[in-house]
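Exercise 7.
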Amino acid sequence: MQVTATQHPEVLLLRPRVFGDARGFFFESYNRKAFTEIGIGAEFVQDNHSRSAKGVLRGLHYQINQPQGKLVRVVAGEVFDVAVDLRRSSPHFGHVATMHLSADAHEMAWIPPGFAHGFLVLSEHAEFLYKTTDYYAPEFERSLRWNDPTLNIAWPLGGAPLLSAKDQAGLPLAECEAFA
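Solution. The predicted structure, written as tokens, is:
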């Protein structure tokens, strides 16, 4: 597996070896031993799958208690993926990592616990899979404002994004609950 650091040294872009021929392709999307060898020794407890239409922006989400590390990938379509470090003790607090993920590229991203995460769908639709290191806890879920000017995220928007009410009410970095 090829591992590449993004704009944030702890957010990793992962490119597995893909074996393909005229019949299709095969790759290991997760192998605990291989992930431990590259420094991701996380124990995953939940798998999630979402489908979204073009222009849907989901995020930037995090859980203030029971923070979730996420191993994310796209199995249909393409997204612009974003992670923001919300650990006040980190020298990278408030830093943003962005990447394009697509089903065709078979890439994955590792988003450690303590980060807000979100994505924008660029294709007609996208199916997004992610493994988490802790269980979903709606009472602890928070939203960081996707368009906070202090984050300076260059979302590749083709118009106004489609947002949930929760994401419309996201707080700016200066006001959001963050990790110690």
